[in-house]
Amino acid sequence: MAKIPLTIDGKPLEVDTGKTILEVCKENNIEILTMCHFEGIGDVGACRLCLVEIEGTTKLLPACTTKVAANQVIKTNTEKLKKYQKITTELFFAERNHICAVCVADGNCELQDLGYKVGMDHVRFPYLFPKAEVDTSHPSYVMDHNRCIMCTRCVRVCSEVEGAHNWGVKNRGVEVRIISDFDTPWGDSTTCTSCSKCVNVCPTGALWPKATVQGQLVKNPKMVSELVAKRKMNL
Amino acid sequence: MNRQDLKTMADAAKAEHNKYKHKICVCCGAGCISSGSEAVLKKLQEEVKTRGLENDVRVVPSGCMGPCNQGPLVKVMPEYAIYQKVNCENIAAVVQSQLIDKKPIEDLLLFADSRPKPFVNAQEDPFFEKQYKIVLKDCGSINPENIEDYIVRDGYKALDKVLFQMSSEEVIAEIKHSRLRGRGGAGFPTGIKWETVYKYVADQKYVICNGDEGDPGAFMDRSVLEGNPHRVLEGMAIAGYAVGANKGYAYIRGEYPLAIKRFEAAIKAAKKLGLLGPNILGSPFSFDIEIRIGAGAFVCGEETALIASIEGKRGTPRPRPPFPAESGLWGRPTLINNVETLASIAPIINRGGEWYSEIGTPKSAGTKVFALAGKINYSGLIEVPMGMTLREIVFDIGGGVPGGKQFKAAQTGGPSGGCIPKEHLDVKVDYESLVSLGSIMGSGGLIIMDDSSDMVDVARFFMEFCMDESCGKCVPCRVGTKMMYDLLSKICSGQGSLKDIEKLEELAVYVKEASLCGLGMSAPNPLLSTLRYYKNEYLAHIKENKAFELKAAGEVSHG
Amino acid sequence: MKQKKSILDENLSRNDPRVKQILVKMKKENYRPDALIEILHTAQNSYGYLPMSVLAFITKELKVPPSRVFSTVTFYHFFSLKSKGEHTCLVCTGTACYVKGAERILSEIEKDFHLKPGMVTNDNKLGLSTARCIGACGLAPAMVVDDEVHAKVKPEDVKNMVLSKTGVRV
User: How far apart are CA B124 and CA B118, in angstroms?
Assistant: First the structure.
């Protein structure tokens, strides 16, 4: 693969063309915060945590969907970016009803980890406290909309990897919710294959196996990434 | 139909039209229809017939003439006498005095109730005199549902010219030379956009006409689509020829049923004459257009969201790059232009890029259509050269603020724009000047506010709009607009504090920079611009908060 | 094995003229999934709104996932899952109408008919909705009663205007 030169955080690098900034950063151990990104499923650039500054561009661009180009000068850790990462994290927490103390994912939650990483000790913005439902109709799994951050990993893994298209998104704006089929109870789904991929890619305690108690959620996030990688190998 | 047939048809129609001594246009734009113009048209046709004038007078339903709040409007040519608020009762008198007695009824002439003396020739009225009509030139003078009317006025001549005398490169060079910029709001140079799409090699390319005029307070595109649909259609075909696309989509708002109906009729008529479809005018170029009807989502004005919507999906935007010019509709190179931009193409081809580039200002060439509304005497649709001052638009053309009230602000760019205060009335209206004042040109909505408007509430109104219209995909826009709306409501209801203003300022800059698409990036603009010019009003609301007053000193010192 | 019951099991009569209109449209669009929005427009035109049974019918005919149809329907404000009432009253809340007092028209309707935007009267006779902008800004404030645009509406005239157009009784 052809190599191109570029600079990330002052470090000159030679990288493969055609890759995204996020991929290149990972290969070079430059940490980029992500949430909607998940190895093995398509990127949408929606959470805005991976925004980077590129010299010559006034807009901040998401590392997950922006391809590298020759001679780019990229910055990933400016004060401005750090500030925005923190606000984004605060908005995640304020949008729905995240109460770690009673959550199955406590201690094993990507949102919680994010809070620690950006140094968020409290949320400065008013909590929205929306009314959100808990769908327990599926025989094996639970969907708790209070803990959903609308990263849409579940929607994408279900359509792109499993091909079931059980999950979708209804409404718009702050009223968006993850839906199953026609917004019918998950247990009544005509498309769900109960494959558990969505549960394993969910970053928070929104999707979890029944009979899990507080703080005891165990997920297998590698399941989907490895599955996709193996498929590509065409063994 | 081949080239010669088109010319023959134009000549024959011209000769036919010249037989008549008078042409009377009855405005049948959506505005005048709601004021009852269709009945007036019918009554006028009867009146002309009963008086035996049908060989002298041609009665035509036309598109928008401009001063919408004076409707129904009736224009008598060649005198250029415009009558306002015409109804079925007084139309007979108009026919009698204007056509038979040759003496206009002054009391019924345009602006008779507000000008000291109305103008017998409406072109001399400042409302029209200060305008420069290119896009709207034939709007209000031709029957939008009759393709002949368009052809008589050099319609499809530009398409004929590009197909037989110009290469794609030459067409693009001409558009570049004209310095035309996208009229949808952002002002990206049209020629460069065309060239980018042209350069990509693909088995299929598309041209999309963006008629999703979602900006509340704007009706330019609606009026053009209703009043002169063939002009837009011709612009699309020329664009298709230039970039190498043989398929076009016109995405029109569902709220505009009349525009959809007329555009549909225009496509049908053009196809019948071979001006659309396979081998246009006998050339090797083929071009077809399909209409897609919007379903009520402001965000679909954003290019990538519009594409998703045409593909039958939720209209959520995706990150750019890649730009639609490279990967657009169904992953193919796609050119997206706004209605007004496309309506400017034929005149540029006919009269040359040089001619167009000399109108307006060096950086913003040509004319711009504005929808003038709000607290203004003469609201309606106007077209002015770029660089005209806001004062001229508001006071000379619009006749100033009614009811003895004071001008307070002009809101441009709708929910993506800002407010321009009294101090800046002399700003030259072009892309850069408006941006420097914290607003944007936008698609052309121009809402005038008087001193009765509460500017914090104006900011709240637009934030509510953006919150409702946010697609919900990215976090800053989805949650940020809701947070800002809640804070603004709090301040409006007298519950706010200085801390809330700080939070608003912080969120506004964040949402502007971190959002995925143009909707989020511009959503804070009305807030930021009112904070910039009317901060005292925010502070006044906060002072209403009695509980706050007690601890105000403490909070300020912490700030 | 027991099969799950679903809305997809319901069938619409293909002889229903409204269903026929949808079928004609689908045929014209070659049953392409990307014509979903166009087909939804047709369905809403014939039914006045989009009943779940119709969504299920479209889903089956186009062979698209149910979540795709429901996601799309709920994204666009034009589409309604509930009946909008026999008569409709739509108040424009665009900027020009806002500046000229659309709020007062809405509060007048709320007072006279006990309706808030998005609601239908108990007898399903009258429904109230708002529009982002109907493009009649020069004639603000504007409202639409059963497809007829009323310009420069005065709050005090609203009640009679709605009553005379729709024959609704308060």
Answer: 10
